[in-house]
Amino acid sequence: MPNTKSAIKRLRQSERRRVQNKAVRSRLRTAVKRVRTATDAAQAAEYYRDAASLLDRAASRGIIHDNTASRSKARLAAHVHRLGAES
């Protein structure tokens, strides 16, 4: 347990951030999963726009690394492109 006033405050802050980051990360994973499981190309493209936006937002806030967001977006875009080519 923290002993100093500043350490107590840091504990409160980090706990608040942890909960917020967890919510953002969970929402992000759900959005990515939606794109992956979509069977219709048009639906997947729509879900991709949402997922890409969430990925960019999470990267800008430092929840995930910038390169992780870029890599995920590239892979999802390729997946959506393949879906369009199949239909």
Overview of the molecule:
This protein is an all-alpha fold and 87 residues long. The chain has one domain: Ribosomal protein S20 (Methane Monooxygenase Hydroxylase, Chain G, domain 1, Up-down Bundle). It is built from three helices and no strands. The protein has helices spanning 5-37, 41-61, 66-86. The longest helix has 33 residues, at 5-37. The radius of gyration is 17 Å and the shape is elongated. The model has no long low-confidence stretch (mean pLDDT 96).
Sum this structure up briefly.
This protein has 87 residues and is mainly alpha-helical. It is built from three helices and no strands.
**What integer is the average pLDDT?**
96
Helix content: over 70%
Q: Gap between N and C termini, in Å?
A: 58 Å
Classified in CATH, the superfamily is Ribosomal protein S20
Low-confidence runs of at least 5 consecutive residues: none
The total strand number stands at: 0
How many structural domains?
Answer: 1
Give the overall silhouette. Answer: elongated
Profile the largest sheet.
none
How many helical stretches? Answer: 3
The whole-angstrom Rg is: 17 Å
Instruction: Tell me what portion of residues adopts beta-strand conformation.
Output: under 5%
User: Secondary-structure element order, as H and E?
Assistant: HHH
CATH architecture: Up-down Bundle
Here the CATH topology equals: Methane Monooxygenase Hydroxylase, Chain G, domain 1
Under CATH at level 1, the class stands as: Mainly Alpha
Function: Binds directly to 16S ribosomal RNA.
Pfam family, one: Ribosomal_S20p
Family: Belongs to the bacterial ribosomal protein bS20 family.
InterPro entries: Ribosomal_bS20, Ribosomal_bS20_sf
